[in-house]
Specification:
This protein is α/β, with parallel strands linked by helices. The protein has 29 helices and 22 strands. Helix 19 packs antiparallel against helix 25 and helix 20 packs across helix 25. The protein starts with a strand and ends in a 13-residue tail after the last helix.
């Protein structure tokens, strides 16, 4: 066996140490499935084996679940077409059959969990007769498959409800929520929490002391699901009756996996386990056969991990971790960057022109750390982290910094002044990063003597929570700057994308179209409530008007005004410009002053303002919700496609990751480029042509899209765009 080290001790206890070769974490692939099959056969057939212990041979943890490359191969027919659910069933049912064979092997089997145990790895543990887990605070257990468009397909949807009850298990599975060891023990998901490093020995002692404990509770006659189950159980009926509409509301009917999970639990919970796992595999195959799952897996897991591991990092550049960060600007953004940098172990000099502002920035760091007390943060660690942040107004205090991030006011002249002052202290060989959201990096780099050492590092607010960092390359940005910026992002455990220079870059530019189209619709007399609901039904985290209030209508007008001034005759005006200007002139600036598209009464709940319908009278004929959804979606898609054609984006991977993690583009699509590939480029072009004819050239397809439609090309098979 290649992936399982199988030994038998003097007491007749077999130990299966999982150590999948070539993987940093144990994963389920064809070799493991074959080896587990062989191991189960030996445990069942050999009289000298009295029981078994399953453990991991890797320091990284127990097991992370399915090897998603293997999963992708299961969905391949060789012809390029997706297989039907019936063709997938036999492939996915193999895992269920193996785990079922394990729990009915006739011998007691205990699982020793040290470290991460997720997905299929956790389903393997659930199929064992006893589960022991080491008490490391870093250990996480659970079934997070829903987060990447799947649901538990190795018996998890059937065993977890039988262990902890239907209602509680659905709360965890539908959210992809994970367990810590103590929590898992309290809910009886694991049987014992033991000192870290002793789980294997504890499991062995249990097997030795319980030679006849070889039957799962659900295989014992008279077993009852905790809390009850079945159509005649009021609690079960109430749970399922409430779960469906709640799930439909939360997913806006866009997600396949949550509904399939509910169906598998509802149909399987009262059946014998052999039949229940067939029900699970039936629904799993249906979910897997739809492009939604593979799109989500590709973007939210495979490509995201590749980005975090340095897929876009220059290979020949040596590692350049940041030890001392010069953080220029102590506002919300600067203070947020200082927080994550200090948490990552860096020394941070938090600079501002006013000491009170610099100290306020440090106070923000302290406030964030206080909220984490008891959640991995100790008082001692908090003091240590806070001590790394030094507020100052003295440029000389920046001496010794090996990386600079600037987050001062969005004005070219102000940024240039600060940049030159910093270079006088640190020298132009230091890498300088600008956290601008719209100003071209190539122009800002003119204030640094070596523009090859100047790069854009665009964070999203709030920095502590938002996972994405957009790295922007100016015309002369060199590989050392790219490597330094990506190493910094890796240190603070964020997800990077790399894009080329453009006004608004990729994320701000593309996200802005969602807000702009919402304003266009208001200006045409469309009901604001219809616009907001259409945005949410599309799968966006919030409607375009609400998000416009959050980022500030006034800020949008300032950015638009600056763009007009900068571009002159090249600026293409939009109807949404006038709508936004009218809002600002009316004093409706957004949430920051308590009135924008919404009103924000003190102590009350925000609501769409009736003033909007007075300023922009309702049209007599209102579009249906699908029409509004289409406009909000395709206005974003065409801007993303323009970024690709212009070379702002080099890869569709960066485009999809940036859209989902940067501005919350509908995650169920896998991102704008995955979505365009899935519906077909020819369909995208035809829709855009129709919208352009009805609503103007902002919807006009790019020439690249037309060429792709004519040739049958897709973004994920197209040649990389040429950098601008």
């Amino acid at each position: 066996m290649n992936s399982i080290n199988f030994t038998i001790d003097g007491d007749g206890i077999a130990t299966l140490i999982i150590d999948v070769p070539g993987q940093s974490m144990n994963v389920i692939g064809p070799d493991f499935l074959s080896d587990l099959d062989t191991a189960i056969t030996r445990i069942s057939a050999e009289e000298g084996i009295k029981g078994a212990v399953i453990a991991s041979g890797k320091d990284s943890g127990f097991m992370a679940g399915m090897d998603l490359k293997y999963f992708g191969s299961m969905l391949s027919t060789g012809s390029g077409e997706r297989p039907a659910p019936a063709d997938i069933f036999d492939k996915v049912f193999v895992l269920n059959q193996l785990f079922r064979r394990l729990e009915t092997c006739g011998k007691p089997v205990a699982c020793a969990i040290e470290g991460t145990c997720l997905g299929g790895g956790f389903e393997l543990a659930l199929a064992c007769h006893r589960r022991f887990v080491g008490d490391s605070p870093k250990t996480q257990l659970g079934l997070p498959e829903i987060l990447i468009g799947l649901f538990p397909g190795g018996g998890g949807s059937q065993r977890l409800p039988r262990i902890m009850g239907v209602q509680a298990s659905l709360m965890y599975m539908l959210q992809g929520k994970l367990f810590r060891p103590a929590e898992a023990a309290m809910l009886k998901v694991v049987d014992a929490v033991v000192p870290q490093g002793t789980a294997e020995e504890a499991a062995r002692e249990w097997v030795k002391a319980n030679p006849t404990a070889n039957t799962q509770p659900w295989d014992v006659r008279g077993f009852k699901v905790p809390g009850g189950a079945g159509g005649f159980n009021p609690a079960f009926v109430q749970t399922m009756a409430g779960a469906l509409p709640m799930t439909l509301k939360q997913t806006q009917r866009n997600m396949n996996a949550p509904i399939a999970l509910l169906s598998a639990v509802y149909e399987g919970i009262t059946l014998p386990m052999d039949r229940a796992i067939q029900i699970e595999s039936k629904y799993f195959a249906k979910v897997a056969a739809d492009p939604q799952a593979s799109n989500m897996i590709r973007t939210l897991f495979v490509n995201k991990q590749a980005a975090e591991r340095g897929a876009r990092r220059p290979k020949d550049e040596r590692k350049a971790p940041t030890k001392k960060l010069a953080m220029l600007g102590a506002g919300m953004m600067g203070a947020g960057i200082a927080t994550v940098a200090a948490q990552a172990g860096m020394e941070v000099v938090l600079f501002d022109r006013d000491l009170a502002y610099a100290e306020k920035g440090k106070a923000h760091v302290e406030e964030v750390l206080k909220k984490r007390l008891g959640k991995g943060m100790t008082p001692e660690k908090m003091v240590e982290t806070l001590a790394r942040v030094t507020p100052t107004t003295d440029y000389a205090a920046l001496a010794g910094s090996d990386f600079v991030i600037e987050a001062v006011f969005e004005d070219v002249a102000i940024k240039a002044e600060v940049t030159k002052q910093v270079e006088a202290v640190l020298g132009a060989d230091t890498i300088f990063g600008s956290n601008t959201s719209t100003l071209p990096i190539t122009r800002l780099a003119q204030a640094w003597s070596k523009p090859e050492n100047f790069i854009g590092v665009h964070f999203f607010s709030p920095v502590e929570k938002m996972p994405l960092v957009e790295i922007i390359l100016g015309e002369k940005t060199g590989p050392a700057a790219i490597a330094k910026a990506l190493d910094f992002v890796a240190q603070i455990k964020k997800t990077p994308i790399v894009v080329h220079d453009s006004r608004g870059f990729y994320t701000s530019r593309s996200f802005g179209t969602y807000v702009q189209e919402g304003a266009e619709l208001v200006g045409e007399g469309v009901n604001p409530a219809l616009i907001e609901n259409a945005g949410k039904q599309l799968g966006m985290p919030t409607g375009p008007l609400a998000v416009s209030d959050e980022v500030s209508i006034e800020l949008g007008v300032k950015i638009m005004t600056a763009a007009k001034k900068e571009l002159g005759d090249a600026y293409v005006p939009q109807a949404s410009d006038d709508v936004a200007v009218r809002m600002v002139e009316a004093g409706r600036l957004g949430r920051k002053n308590g009135k924008g598209w919404y009103d924000y009464p003190e102590g009350g709940k925000k609501h769409l303002s009736p003033v909007i319908s007075e300023m922009f009278p309702r049209a007599l004929h209102q579009p249906d919700v699908e029409t509004v959804k289409e406009r909000l979606l395709y206005r974003q898609l065409i801007e993303c496609a323009r970024c690709f054609e212009e070379g702002v984006l080099e890869t569709p991977e960066d485009g999809d990751i940036g859209a989902i993690f940067g501005w919350g583009f509908a995650p169920y699509t896998g991102g704008p480029f995955s979505h365009m590939d899935t519906v077909g480029i020819a369909h995208v072009v035809a829709t855009l042509d129709r919208l352009a004819a009805a609503h103007g050239p902002r919807f006009a397809p790019t020439q690249q899209l037309r060429d792709m439609a004519a040739s049958g090309a897709t973004f994920y098979k197209a040649a990389p765009a040429k950098a601008a």
